[in-house]
Amino acid sequence: MLSKQIRPLLSRAAAHQNAPQTLAASLRGYAQAAAVQDTKPPVAVFGLDGTYASALYTAAAKTSSLDSTSKSLAALAEVFRKDIKLSGILTAPTLDAGDKSQIIQELQRHMGGVDKSDTVKNFLKTLSDNNRLGILQGVCEKFATLMGAARGELELTVTSAAKLDSKTLQRLEAAVAKSEYSQGKRLKVAPKVNPDIMGGLVVEIGDRTIDLSVSSKIAKMNKLLTDTL
Questions:
Q1: Residue 70: partners with Cβ closer than 8 Å, 6 or more residues away
Q2: Is pLDDT at 35 greater than 90 in this prediction?
Q3: What does pTM read for this prediction?
Q4: 104 and 22 in contact (C-beta within 8 Å)?
Q5: Where is 192: in which H helix or E strand?
Q6: Alpha helices, H only, 32-164
Q7: CA 158 to chain centre
């Protein structure tokens, strides 16, 4: 796994880290000269990872490299999915400039040479320079949301306490597709596992969330008992 390959870097503590650039300055190289009608992200995504994902979308659109950028980030998202320790390593405060350079090289290797325009390579350098490699997993997820919207897809996130089988996911997709929530768009199912919800499901589609989790029901019951007493 990638985390095993770069874990030795953590043993070399960085005594000094360069001060990060401001967020506006780090993103300016991606978005400042973009034609709004051609490169504007199709939907709004929020959070710091959403800000970076939107800037990357603009840069990729500007250089006609959306497809290769999407494939590169999808490859990185798969690395995160298989290696749950990687995200923690990328946030380690002991990484110096040399360590980050090696990490970027490893990440590029896992992209399989898809990034012909170096759009993602340059983006990773921007994240590294601003001590933001730790948000890379979130950027991958937010960028996938932007690409789905650009393709006319609507992401359907289904969170369960344990992994759902494909047949159950297909039934959920079919049910939502027939509802008003789908807005007549093609659905892109994104299953997630979160043991903390204890059971049931949390379904997110567009800007709507349907919380049918056991943890939510317990929280509501506890609030009701507290208010009553």
A1: 60, 143, 144, 147
A2: no
A3: 0.67
A4: no
A5: strand 186-193
A6: 36-39, 47-62, 66-82, 86-90, 97-110, 119-129, 136-150
A7: 15
